[in-house]
Amino acid sequence: MNCVYCHREIVDLRRCYQKIEGWERKAVEPSRRGGSDIVLRTPLDEWACAGCVHKLQAGVSVHQEALV
Questions:
Q1: Where are the domains of the chain?
Q2: What does the H/E/C string look like for 11-27?
C-alpha cells in the first residue's frame, strides 16, 4: 500500500496512519479542553505515512522537502 499524499510505499504499519470515519463528540470537561471522543469508528482503506501527517499537522505542504 502507498501513502495517499506522497505515494511512497508504506512498509511499517506501526508508523503510519489509517483514515477513519466516525461520530465525534466534543469534550465539555475543563480538564479535556480541545479534546473529543470518536465513536463507531469505521476504518477506510486509505493510509498516510507519519511524515506526511506530521507536515499537514504543522500546516506545511507534503510536497515541501525542507525549509530554505
A1: 13-57
A2: CCHHHEEEEEEEEEEEC
